[in-house]
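Quick question, first post here. What does this chain look like in 3D?
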Amino acid sequence: MESPHLIFLKSAVNNKPAPSEQLRDALHRLDHMLTDLTNDLRVTYAGPYVGLNHTPRQHQICVAEQQWSLQERGWGVAICTSHPVHGWRAEWRLAAVSRERLPLVVNALPALFAGYAAAVDVSPAASRPSTRRIHEIAELFAH
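> Answer (accepted):
Ran it through. Tokens below.
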């Protein structure tokens, strides 16, 4: 049986009404899951853009080793600045985005998982169990 928070997020894709508190809770749980998976896989991926209307390509969802703060560094998924000078600089975790960006992040999840599954497939980590789990999540969001 699939995780309830993943099923909830899948049902919220394409702007289906959902309370923002529940969306944030589900994204927080997803973030924890992805931290474990990405730490095992260690495959970087530049995912879909989630910029707002006036700057649509300024932010994107990235999987990488993130510098969360001066003291905290680790693999995970973040909304990153996609400026060529700054590279990928983590701005927010998935659940910490503004209310305007929240639906963009939720609607980008199918593309994030499809793209990350493809990136992992061509990496040295392709045979790891975490790869199978990423594919299961991508399959859930694809249908």
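The CA atoms of residues 58 and 84 lie 10 Å apart.
The longest helix spans residues 20-41.
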